[in-house]
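User
Here is a favour to ask of a fellow structure person. I am asking you to supply a protein in sequence and structure-token form. Please set it down just below, with no commentary around it:

Assistant
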Amino acid sequence: MTPTKYPDGNVFFRKLTWEYPRVTHGKGCWLYDDTGRSYLDAVGGAFVSNVGHGVPEIADAMAAQAKKLAYVSGMTMSHDAVEDFSRELASRCAPGLDKVYPLSSGSDAVEAALKLARQYWAELGKQGKTRIVALSPAYHGNTLLALSASAREHYRAAFGNWLVDVIRVPAYDSAALEAAIVEAGPETIAAFIAEPVGGSSTGALVPPEGYWRRARDVCASYEVLLVADEILVGSGRTGTWSALEPDAVVPDIQIFGKGIAAGYAPLAAIVAPSRITNALAAGSGGLNHAQTFSHHAVSCAAGTATMQYLAEHGLVERCARMGHALHERLAALSKLPSVNAVRGRGLLAGVDFVNPATGKPYDRTARFAESVTRAALDAGLVVWPNVGHADGTNGDLVMLAPPFVVSEDELDQIVDRLSAAIAKVAS
């Protein structure tokens, strides 16, 4: 299977020169297309399918909710599904993070979280606190404010004049974070946003010990809201419900998405403390972020069923155990000449590539990550490519994030098939 002409049919595909298998169904870690081919889903689609494909309990919960109530506007009414979802999610968050605002995508949730941070300071009369600090590399979504906070230049290039100016600091350098806040003036900074463990933009980079405790102290000292983007790395993906749990750090605003409903419905959420929502209640009366499908009944039912399924089957704990097994097996990839590093935590891993002839990243024109992704797909393995992490343009890696139900045999197959794909492309 090779890239081909623009796909036939009426679908406006995300990539217009890619040959798409037509998937008909999935079960566990496997997907099946209309030709009978099987694919080992080593990245949960897009870091989404935490519980695996084809879980009837979640589908049944969604159907039951749809039969009772599919939708009412979150502007004027509540319902059992959103009350249940909010209670389930808040119970898994750190004490104090008790107000849940469900939305329909991660980008939308980042947009809402940053707007909440700005509005909070405005409600308190601190109108000058408008700026955002973010990491580089980083990725937070594709809506305009979320894209502004992202350091993914090939996504941003066409929209430069539409984006807001964001202060960038090197990823996971707490001294650089404090220096940037001081230089800009703390009275101008509304929020610092970052992923607790790096997502696809860094290839699952794990911060150094003590980074998050220091970053938490810096934000508190300068009255900057700490926004934890856990869309990709939360919901158990790194072996704990929140990727911040090992550091015992509580953010001011927390964002979940992707695995929160395991792909059974579009769902994300921001979680904030009452001290922030109380400021809005005493001022303008609510968050100025209208979204038709926020607080959606069927999506919330999917989220509640997913969280309950994770708990009933001990899947977050299983993710931690299988994560150790995954990284033990991935160590073999480090011996390949084209592999620079393998990193990550839990069932999240990034494989970073290097040109062995130069000892530097492959030139972007080589499209190494995309070629490995295609070779893996041809071999029946789904992985996720990312580019540009080295200097904004160059840098190739692929990501792995299999469902928490992955078996040890499937981990072996993931490593074997990916190793063969890398070797094929490198040759």
